[in-house]
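protien #1 (seq + structre)
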Amino acid sequence: MTSSAHAAHLAELNVATLRYPLDDPRMAPFVEMLDPVNAAADTAPGFVWRLVEEGTADATGLRPAGEDVIVNLTVWETQEALWDFTYRSGHLEVMRRRREWFERHVEAHMVLWWVPAGHLPTVGEALERLADLRAHGPSPRAFTFASSYTAVEAAQHLQAVRPEQTARSERPTPAGDAAAV
């Protein structure tokens, strides 16, 4: 993990539904690109961290979103650093060819959110953010490149939500209300 002077970092999750198993010959070009693209990410300006499966160089063996779904979870110093890597590096070749290897998603398959610098998001946290984006659309809590929010906006949103949650939890509940338990 690289060090950073930023107070917040940008977390990113994307999921992709495989057309074929990774060991299928039709997936070979994608599999061959994994190491070079991951190595490029690891040395890209603004890169902080990426999820890898223990004992491997990538996360393609992890299947928390379904047996045919691979996940990519990364953290970047800024949105610009992630954008540059995604669209101005060798990663773009993978993006251009993604329909050869992955099904078209009909709902959001990528989500961005701000985390405190030094925080490494869990897969569960990332999948929850994706679910939030799918259910409620973009917000300072879960957004996309096309509908982005700044770290300041995300922090202000969190501050606005916390007092409301605290007030709700402190309200007296009627006796016998099973939902209040």
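ok now protien #2
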Amino acid sequence: MLTRLVNLNKRNFHQLSEQEILALAISNEEDDSRIYQTFAENLREDFPDTANMFVEMAKEENEHRRWLIELHREKFGELIPLVRREHVKGFFYRKPDWLAKTLNVEKARKQATEMEAQAYRFYTAAVKQCTDASIRTLLGDLAEAEAGHITLASDSSARNLSDEAIGKENAKEKRDFILTYIQPGLAGLMDGSVSTLAPIFATAFATQNTWTTFLVGIAASIGAGISMGFTEVASDDGIISGRGSPIKRGLATGIMTTLGGLGHALPYLIPDFWLATYVAIFIVFVELWVIAWIQNKFMETPWSKAIFQVVLGGVLVFAAGVLIGGG
């Protein structure tokens, strides 16, 4: 119902006059230029080559805006009507500047490609709706320009980004992702999966009560997650080490620590003790192999070393819990 009421205040594209189409094109170019400038500012420090690419794209959008304003002045005078995307039904959406600042380099490039494709479709439709020869000419030229930009935006090397520059930027982005999310998350998953084995299985074999074991497992998992999360936040602010936001790292560590413990605590919701235990043991086995796989894939740890560190360590902690609980 709310969407319908909002759409009542919008106009169909085919209802726009030639002046309004020019005004809409001007505001579109202004918005796109500002978004590209935001991309450039956000990426300047870590990805200077891509930032320069977005600076050039912003300059081109400003040039398009200038052409459109000059034609509007010639045809309709100085006063440009306020027509924006949100005033037209079914018009493409642009993310606000504050959301654009959160995009990584690859997503920024992808959004730029989508923006250019949307601009091309707009100018193609606008040409069909206008009858004035000079307006059709300019809109057609802009459609051709945007069509060329689609390839340029998607293929960064076409904008003078060398293979070496692109490789360095992609490697930097991968490194940042690993240091901010993978490494802290892996540490949390290892701690949650391994350190909770002893208390959970010790409780299980000492009491053989599934509900008590479940409660201990939940408490141990959540407690470990909170502790690990706060420890990660307090240990490094990321400024010198370059490991990224401490809040993001803390969340990654805390969440994965909790999930690591919950994996073999949740089976004890099964009332049958031995069935719950067998399921928990199977999940532990899967968890340990997943950790070894992550170490091998993202941390480039050899399989033999990953298996020795994770699987053997987990088995020893599990055995300690069983011996203590069953003793």
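The chain is about 75% helix and 0% strand.
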